[in-house]
Amino acid sequence: MLAPGLQIIVVFSTIFISAAVFLLARKLVLKYAERKQASYVLWGLGLWFFGLSALIEALLALNIYSTALMGLYLFLVVLVVQLLSLGSVELLNGGLYKKAYYAFSAIVALATVASIVSSPPANLMVNYVVAGLPPLPVIITSSIATFVSSAVIVGIAIKSFIKRRSWKMMSIIAGVVVVGAAGTLYIAAMPELLYYAEFLGMVFLWLGFK
C-alpha cells in the first residue's frame, strides 16, 4: 500500500536533510585539519548527531518505532544543541568560562539521560512527525539544556559578528542558531516548525562553509 503523501514528504525531506548534514560534517573535519580550531570539531560532532536525529525522524515516520529509539532521539535533540553551543563557546577567550560551561553541559546531559531512562517516553508520533510531548521530567531537563544552550549561541553570535564583521561567519552562526532553535521548538511543542528550522539551518551552514 502506497504511503500517504504527508508520510512520503516527511521521510524524503528528513533523509535529504540527514545526507546534506553528514556531507557538511565531513567538510568541517577538513576545515579543522586546515585551521586546527576546536569550534569546527564541536560543530562537526553536533552536525553528525543532527544528521543522525534527522535519520531517526525518517525511521519514526516509517512507523519503525521503539521506546529506546524515541529516547535516543530525545537525547540527540539536546546533545545537538549542546555541541553547537560548545563550538560557539570555543570562539571566546577565557578558560574559566569554558570549563564552567563544559561542566554545566555535562551535568545537564547526564540529567537528561537519567530522566529519559526513569520516565520512558510513549509514542510521540502524530501524522508522521514527532509532535507529542515527552514525560514532565524529560521536558524539564531538556528544556534547561536547550534554552540555555540556545541563549549562549545567540549571545556569542552577536558578539562574534560585532567583532569580525564576517558575513560567512554570520551565516555559519545563523545556521547554528537556527539548528539550535529547532530543538527548542520541539520542546515548546511546535513540531510544524521543527522540520522547517532543520532545513533552514542546514542551508545557512552550507552557505557559510562553501
Q: Strands, helices and their partners?
A:
Layout: H1 5-35, H2 38-61, H3 67-89, H4 95-118, E1 125-126, E2 129-130, H5 136-164, H6 167-187, H7 191-209
Antiparallel strand pairs: 1-2
Helix pairs in contact: 1-2, 1-7, 2-3, 3-4, 3-5, 3-6, 4-5, 5-6, 6-7
Task: Name some characteristics of this structure.
210 residues, mainly alpha, Rhopdopsin 7-helix transmembrane proteins, 7 helices
Care to describe what's here?
- The protein is an all-alpha fold and 210 residues long.
- It has a single domain, classed as Rhopdopsin 7-helix transmembrane proteins (Up-down Bundle).
- Helix content is 81%, strand content 2%.
- The protein is built from seven helices and two strands.
- β1 and β2 form a beta hairpin.
Brief summary:
This protein has helices at residues 5-35, 38-61, 67-89, 95-118, 136-164, 167-187, 191-209, and strands at residues 125-126, 129-130. The protein is mainly α and 210 residues long.
